[in-house]
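A reminder from the course coordinator: this example appears on the midterm review sheet, so study it carefully.

Given structure:
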């Protein structure tokens, strides 16, 4: 077996491990829901009416000093709220808070997560696994650099699916998930800048600079882990900017690919297949935006199944890579898989 085949099977083994990791997380994730929002010093900043915290008697401004009798300073990384000492639906959690200088204790009764939370987990799993295994399929069936890049993109997508709880190390797992999502978007942009042929930014020797924000994210995550809880959620805004920025840049790259070159070149490269996948996936995006402005309790028509259309993105990209490789082989007179 040559080195290329060995590498393919090594990537296949990694894909199996990532699937097992994400599958274990999906099957074992039964954490209850508390609608809890806390400041870095564990001060409760949001108590929705009729929610779990309000039902337990907690108020905005209460500062949590102990959980199940354990001082918050001794909880370590597992105190990354609201995952701290997470319970299953129906289980109880006693918290001691300081309110106006006095101590007060309440008991939280965990609820079932909202339906949209469970649906989002399933959609995330389907989306990441589609990228992962379509990338492996392309790697084994299609020659060329684009196939390898798509396979790597799929492997990174596998990191974006949270695995099972790791007890005191769950904070590291959560950081790994966030870092995986941002790295996935960066590699996605890199792929789109090179497919089917390199655009001007990708021809520059400075293309590697698009990975620097991710390095900054790793530094920020390390700082949060080391200084926890003082920097708790301090970099949420930075993460949001990275996510939105690279996502918009990827959409712009797709649009540019759709209008670059002649129609015959685009057809032979399978650009239409990739663009169609992205166009179909715009529907769940628009539905999600509508959900932000529609009053709570209202169901957006089709919102229960539209998010699953996101798999059209990896499907369209995989088919486009296969079409491009086939057209290139035909032009060179080589046999195709």
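Designed residues:
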């Amino acid at each position: 077996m040559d080195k290329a085949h060995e590498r393919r099977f090594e990537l296949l083994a990694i894909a199996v491990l990532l699937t097992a990791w994400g599958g274990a997380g999906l099957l074992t994730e039964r954490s209850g829901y508390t609608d809890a929002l806390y400041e870095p010093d564990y001060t409760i900043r949001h108590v929705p009416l009729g929610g779990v915290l309000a039902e337990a008697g907690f108020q905005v401004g209460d500062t949590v000093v102990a959980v199940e009798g354990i001082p918050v300073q001794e909880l370590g990384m597992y105190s990354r709220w609201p995952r701290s000492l997470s319970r299953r639906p129906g289980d109880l959690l006693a918290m001691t808070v300081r309110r106006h200088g006095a101590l007060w204790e309440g008991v939280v009764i965990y609820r079932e997560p909202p339906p949209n939370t469970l649906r989002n987990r399933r959609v995330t799993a389907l989306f990441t696994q589609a990228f992962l295994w379509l990338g492996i399929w392309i790697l084994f069936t299609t020659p060329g650099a684009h196939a390898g890049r798509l396979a790597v993109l799929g492997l990174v997508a596998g990191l974006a699916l949270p695995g099972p709880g790791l007890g005191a190390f769950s904070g590291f797992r959560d950081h790994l998930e966030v870092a995986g999502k941002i790295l996935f978007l960066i590699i996605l942009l890199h792929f789109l800048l090179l497919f089917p042929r390199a655009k001007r930014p990708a021809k520059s020797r400075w293309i590697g600079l698009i990975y620097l924000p991710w390095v900054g994210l790793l530094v920020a995550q390390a700082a949060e882990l080391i200084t926890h809880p003082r920097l708790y959620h301090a970099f949420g805004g930075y993460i949001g900017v990275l996510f939105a920025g690279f996502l918009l840049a990827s959409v712009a790259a797709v649009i540019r690919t759709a209008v670059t070159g002649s129609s015959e070149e685009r057809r032979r490269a399978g650009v239409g297949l990739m663009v169609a996948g992205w166009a179909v996936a715009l529907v769940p995006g628009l539905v999600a935006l509508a959900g932000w402005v529609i009053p709570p309790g209202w169901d957006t028509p089709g919102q229960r199944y539209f998010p699953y259309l996101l798999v059209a993105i990896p499907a369209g990209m995989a088919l486009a890579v296969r079409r491009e490789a086939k057209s290139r082989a035909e032009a060179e007179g080589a046999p195709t898989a």
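Residues 78-83 have pLDDT under 50 and may be disordered. The longest strand covers residues 92-99.
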